[in-house]
Amino acid sequence: MPSIFSKIILREIPAHIVYEDDQVIAFLDISQATKGHTLVVPKVEYKDIFEVPEKTSSRVFEVATKLAKAIQKAFGAHAMNILSNNGEYAGQTVFHFHIHLIPRYDKADENLFKLKNNQGNLTPDEYKERARLIKEALS
Ligand code: AMP
């Protein structure tokens, strides 16, 4: 079954589209977590970052960069979270790869995406081993 985003791409359901080219579409997130909250989505439906080809995600990030600047200009947002949830445990709810552009306006919002800091719990060898495993997986 096509994702809700594919239905938007096919104009089967409405959305406030702000950008479109042959590969990428962007529209307002219906939740409007903040003013101008926008989703950037490849037109070909890939479930998540693990499936999307690097060429496609590069193009999505290129458009996201352009849109971040446009949102800054449109609303005077001088802070922005760029976020992509991938997989159920990461909070993904629509399984069609996408990037959230979430402009920030209020100092009270600044800690919303604060990550846990585990620095004190790790030895230098554990850092070394984690980096080694990632580099090994890349080759
Ligand atoms: P995620 O939870 O990261 O997968 O993000 C999915 C996002 O899609 C949520 O922020 C929803 O608010 C948004 N969303 C769901 N349906 C629609 C829709 N019809 N139009 C625009 N945004 C939508």
Q: What's the structural domain tally?
A: 1
- Can you summarize the main beta sheet? 5 strands, antiparallel
Q: Report the CATH topology name.
A: HIT family, subunit A
Mean pLDDT: 95
Q: What oligomeric assembly is this protein in?
A: single chain
CATH H-level superfamily title? HIT-like
Question: What share of the residues lie within helices?
Answer: 25-40%
How many H/I helical runs? 3
User: For the largest beta sheet, what order do the strands appear in spatially?
Assistant: 1-2-3-5-4
Percentage beta strand: 15-25%
CATH architectural arrangement: 2-Layer Sandwich
Name every ligand kind in the structure.
Answer: adenosine monophosphate
Query: Given this structure, which CATH class is correct?
Result: Alpha Beta
The string of secondary-structure elements, in order, is HEEEHEEH
| Gross geometry | globular
Written account of the structure:
There is one protein chain. By secondary structure, the chain is of the alpha+beta class. The protein has one domain: 2-Layer Sandwich (HIT family, subunit A), CATH 3.30.428. The protein is 31% helix and 18% strand. The protein is built from 3 helices and 5 strands; from the N terminus they run αβββαββα. The chain has a 5-stranded antiparallel sheet with strand order 1-2-3-5-4, covered by helices on one side. A hairpin with a 3-residue loop joins β1 and β2. The longest helix is centred in the middle third of the chain and has 22 residues. The radius of gyration is 17 Å and the shape is globular. The termini are far apart. Bound molecules: adenosine monophosphate. The site of adenosine monophosphate (AMP) has 12 residues, from loops. The site of adenosine monophosphate has 12 residues, from loops.
